[in-house]
Structure formats: structure tokens, C-alpha cells
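Private note to self, pasted from the team thread so I don't lose it. C-alpha cells:
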């Protein structure tokens, strides 16, 4: 097992790794839509979702894989009424076959944001 870190995403808000490689998989901690360059997040949940997935992709790239290798995803929303907007952004970022996914509404996230996503992905065999 080894840790994956990259300066291309915001720093962790607590004592956890951005990602962990274990065996042939990468486990990415929950990421949000904070832009690493500005430290700010977009207002719309769709834009937050797109930035969140870009942050996830940066960690996957640092581990040596891509979003196409995502096997499972968990999406946390602070308002399930945002489900359709999140799905639209999610669908435009990922391709078929889509990963297995769970989506749940939570009362709040560690930062005042609307969406957080965690994934598990396969490493390339190369």
C-alpha cells in the first residue's frame, strides 16, 4: 500500500490521504469542487461536480490511471434535488460503461459545498 499525492488538487482538510494504491486499485478520498488554483468553488452544483471530477482525475493521473478505470463511485449531495444536475455533469465527464455508483443525501459536508465524490479505480496493467 502506498499514498498518492498531487499538488493539482486542494490539500486534505484532515488526517487522510488524497489517494491510496492497494494492490491493483486506487482508492481516492472524497473530493469536492474547490479549484486548486483559486481555492474557491463554483456556485452551481453542476460546476462543482465538474470540478470535483477534475480533482478526482488529477489524483487518478498521479496514480497512473484515468477516470475510464473507475469501478465504483460514491456521490454525497447536500440536496437530492440536485440529483439531475449532478447526473448531467457526471455523464459528460465519464463514459460508458459507467462505474457502479451510490448517491446519498447528507446533512452537510466538511466544507460548505454541495457535492463530494469518492472513487475506486483499477490501475493500468502496463
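Design output:
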Amino acid at each position: 500500500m502506498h499514498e498518492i499525492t498531487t499538488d493539482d488538487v486542494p490539500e486534505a482538510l484532515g488526517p487522510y490521504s488524497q489517494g491510496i494504491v492497494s494492490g491493483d486499485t486506487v482508492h481516492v478520498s472524497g473530493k469536492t469542487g474547490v479549484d486548486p488554483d483559486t481555492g474557491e468553488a463554483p456556485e452551481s452544483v453542476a460546476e462543482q461536480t465538474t470540478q470535483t471530477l477534475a480533482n478526482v482525475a488529477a489524483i487518478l493521473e498521479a496514480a497512473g490511471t484515468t477516470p475510464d478505470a473507475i469501478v465504483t463511485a460514491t456521490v454525497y449531495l447536500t440536496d437530492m434535488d440536485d440529483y439531475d444536475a449532478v447526473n448531467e455533469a457526471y455523464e459528460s465527464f465519464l463514459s460508458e460503461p459507467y462505474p457502479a455508483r451510490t448517491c446519498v443525501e447528507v446533512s452537510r459536508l466538511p466544507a460548505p459545498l454541495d457535492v463530494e465524490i469518492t472513487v475506486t479505480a483499477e490501475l493500468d496493467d502496463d
